[in-house]
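PROTEIN DATA CARD
Card holder: Cytochrome P450
Chain length: 359
Origin: Cylindrodendrum hubeiense
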Amino acid sequence: MSHIVRAEERIDLCTDMFMTRMKEFANTGEIIDMSKWAQMYAFDVIGQLFFSRMFGFMKDKSDYRGYIRSLDLLVPILTTSCVLPTYIRPLFLGIVVLMPGVYKALGSLKDIEKAAESCVSERQRLVESGDVTENKDILSSLFDIVREKGEKLDFGMTEVQVEVFGALFAGSDTTAAALSSILYHVVKSPTAYRKLTEEIDQATKSGQLSVPNVQYQEAMKLPYLVACCKEGMRIHPSVALTLPRHVPQGGCTISGDWFAEGTRVGVNAAVVHRDKGIFGEDADSFNPDRWFRDDAVNMDRYMFHFGGGSRTCIGKNLIPQLLRSFDLELTDQEWETHNFWFHKPSNFNVRLRPKATSV
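Structure generated from the sequence above:
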């Protein structure tokens, strides 16, 4: 969270580019896949957060170096390999590498790895040369860890490269899935869409939301927006697989059942999020109003959309900026979702129209 707030001016550059593209589509009446644009936005934001620069997905309106295509092709293969018994994996990988396009995708994956190495090497050169113009982004914070306590934590340049690669490999899919789900379910629900746009418009008129760029902390003060974000991530968690953990020494009891030490256990976020004992009898429905119930604090404890721990969706302030400038209309086609490591949406097709009072 601290990195997002600190980098807000740089993220605003990504939002400006996104809004410019949305205005172009609104003027032409072109139907666009919002899930695709959410991922391009997420990738460029990751570039700003880690490297203080956008990759160019939105600027060029294209898949930079084929990263998205490569991830879409490789994630199902890598996920299947991870859940297969160890002795079957070599045979499986040996077969799939012969599939059309897989070899090329592996090359693009190597490009992502090289990009991570290149960014780390370049930043290391700047640090060693004493360049005082270095931006305070996540990469520089990782370098601080290496310098201040790397030896104690066994955290060196290899670990920095792994962190950067992980952000490039996984960061865009999870963020785009969350952002797409929030927008999709809001636009699909006339009641939620009306209540949210009314809250955004009123907040803009009263000066609660900055113009032209809504600030993250401003967005977080809009109660119905926050409820819509929570509900969108609840109904469609970004991570689709169980996140495995090993039972500790001595074993333990989980939900009334005993598990021996070393047993691999996990929980699927979608199962938790649809638990009627936690979220109510309407747990299968998109209903932002549930977050104003008396048990909302308890429900928050069971949110597992990005897995456990402190996480946030970096697009929350993009949503009010988008919805106060444009009316979004879904096409008749339902979106599609693909359940591998990530719970990835696609074909979230919308038409945008400029609002008469847009800012």
